[in-house]
Amino acid sequence: MDGDRPHHHDGTPAEHGHEHFGPADAAAMATRDGVRATWLSLGILAATALLQVAIYLASGSVALLADTIHNLTDALTAIPLLIAFRLGRQPPSRRFPYGYHRAEDIAGLVIVALILVSAVLAAWEAIDRLRHPQEVTEIAWVLVAGLIGVAGNQVVAAYRMRVGRRIGSEALVADGLHARTDALTSLAVVVSAIATWIGFGNADAVIGLVIVGAIVVTLVQAARSVLHRALDGTEESTIALIETVAASVPGVEHVSEARARWSGHRLLAELAIDVDGGLRVEEGHAIAERVRQELLRDVPRLAEATVHVDPHEHASHTG
After folding, report:
1. What confidence tens digit (pLDDT) does each residue in 70-119 have?
2. Number of domains into which the chain is organized
3. Domain match, 211 and 262 both
4. Which residue, of 230, 255, 287, is where some domain finishes?
5. pLDDT tens digit string along 149-160?
6. Does 16 fall in a domain?
7. At CA 260, angle to CA 22 and CA 33, rounded to 5?
8. Maximum CA extent, the chain
9. What residue numbers bound the domain in which 305 lies?
10. Looking at the whole model, is its pTM more than 0.90?
11. DSSP assignment string, 250-314
């Protein structure tokens, strides 16, 4: 059933159900949380990368360079995310009647592309260092830089993934996976510094290649989740929940079809229900509206629900 969503009469969040705000309020709050998480993580990663750049210039560690490239790339992924969140706030138009929320899915694809670029750059530097070995100096500072990278990236990864999963943003979760791998690669820099200090000749370049492998693993994980969302994929459990909630509404005799897809971090659902064919149009409309309200209340992160009503004739019970 199409139509405008009911508004709170006093402008305040609802105080019933498992959510304390309406779907429109929830979407706006989710966007604000996403923007806040992106800005905070950008600041932390930028500061981490700048410290690492300074130490790389003094030490010449290719493992540290690979980690720094990865951290800088991770910081840059905040830019498409911020653009996407800002576009998501824009109201629908006649040209974009569904709004601009899919920009977030495009940002996820950009993030995957940036992860790929960071892997290529880091591999290039590590292979070049294997072919042309150079002495690594200021090993103690390289060790410090690696520890800084571990701490900064682990904090950012946990924060991004927690917020991303809470608001349903696969792009932000992918960015969190990226940061988690950055923490592992920073730990590899620590191992490289220790190995170089005790006399393993090509440890720095070899660890650089290990870091590349970790980046590739992250690339595969992020690409799977982002592409799944971009191709309108959702979870079977979500469809099952939609069917269960709709079928539990009095007057619904059968849920004949249920579909859902993500638009950014907003879940959209469309379903068809069968009602008694003898009901008046107004009665069928009222049942559909109850279904819609129940879905918006009980399905996490659901922002819109369109309910189609079809008559269910009980031919088998006649005669």
Report:
1. 677 767 777 787 788 788 778 888 888 878 888 888 888 888 887 788 77
2. 2
3. no
4. 230
5. 788 888 888 888
6. no
7. 45
8. 94
9. 236-317
10. no
11. TT--EEEEEEEEEETTEEEEEEEEEEETTS-HHHHHHHHHHHHHHHHHHSTTEEEEEEEEEEE--
